[in-house]
Predict the 3D structure of the following.
Amino acid sequence: MKRHEAIEFAARAHLGQIRKGSDIPYISHPFEVALLLDEAGADDTLFIAGLLHDTLEDTSVTPEAIRERFGEEVLTLVQNASEDKSKTWEERKTRTIDRLTKTRDRRIMMLACADKAANLRSTRYNYEEHGEKVWDRFNRGKDQFKWYYHGVIKALAEPERKAEDRSQNRRNITELPMYHQLTEDFKRIFVAYYINNEETELISYYTDWKNRSVRVLKKDEVQSGWQPGETREVKQGKPVSFDAAKKMAGQWRQKRRKETLQNRLDQQFAFIREIDKEKFITRQTYLSDGVRKENDAEHAWHMAVMAALLGGYANTDIDLQKTMLMLLTHDLVEIDAGDTYAYDEVGKKTQRAREEKAADRLYALLPEDQGVWLRDLFEEFDTGQTPEALFARALDRIQPTMLNAATGGKGWEERGVRLSQWMGRNTQTEEGSRVLWEYVLSHFVMPFVQSGKLKNE
């Protein structure tokens, strides 16, 4: 009901007034401001303030009348949106820009944004119809209006306020459709656009009585956005409209995104094809049938399934997905470095250097973000300090122990492995899972010590 009451109140207050240089009833402007605010999610207080924002400045309505009918909050917002007509145009506009730069009141900013967006949209329509003559209907010229709207847009986009909105998980003013409308209409009216003869660079040129800006968007570097340019680049280009420049920039970005996606996919599939070679790296552990030895890919797959099933036995909570990926990828370096047998003391002396060199080559095949991600996982596993790495390393010891037990201790017997060697390799296993350590020791190890297949000197 209050919104309806405010509509009638505003309509009566502006009765008989028309927009500058036209026969359009003035009330169309407050209505448009209120609609923009409503689209931006305004509450009743802000919506009503949008309807009444020009009543103190341009009609006989008093502050008392607004306070009595609509409350103190509405009055405060309307007063903030009103200008002191005893001041010069420059003084009034400077005060508006300063106020918007300093305020942290979101509703004041939203009301100002809606007001300026509605005004500039109306000006743009008239500018497209009448050209430069449109400025004759105002008290100041094009340059002054350029400076003013440029200042308002910059004030609404004040960086510290953006950080505050992000910290509160709140949409910033610059993310609202009415702000985008305001900035695009500004560019259509006040910013000149050019394209170079080769049609590889777009140039935007803006100047007013206080500011000058040249920005360049390069086709081949479109992902970097608009960059500072030089005035000479303007002189070398041919004029294009804002909409033509926007369309061309959009096409460049879309093409670049496709190229970037293509390149990323090329890198990812190059890596995926390369790691197929892990299937050719033979380990020293027999498969459960005791006939063939497993390869690195089979070893990794087996441990990933073990992690999914046995993750609940880790000593502390772990990120299961991370642990499984760590197990699936930690031996990829053996594509270049080869498998180093667990009890090969000579091979262990060069193992780290060989694997570091392999990691450098393999992970460089991927897009940088994914290469760093998997390289970090490899280093985390190798260092063995996090809960995930401790559990993954425990499974890396348990899996071949289980298979040796399944083959009747065949691998241990062939290599003459001693209990002290096995214990030395499993010094960290209990740190990953005490439950699994005790189970493995009693079920997979001690029976073979007792049978003599795992020697206990």
Q: What stands out?
A: The first strand starts at residue 192 and ends at 195.
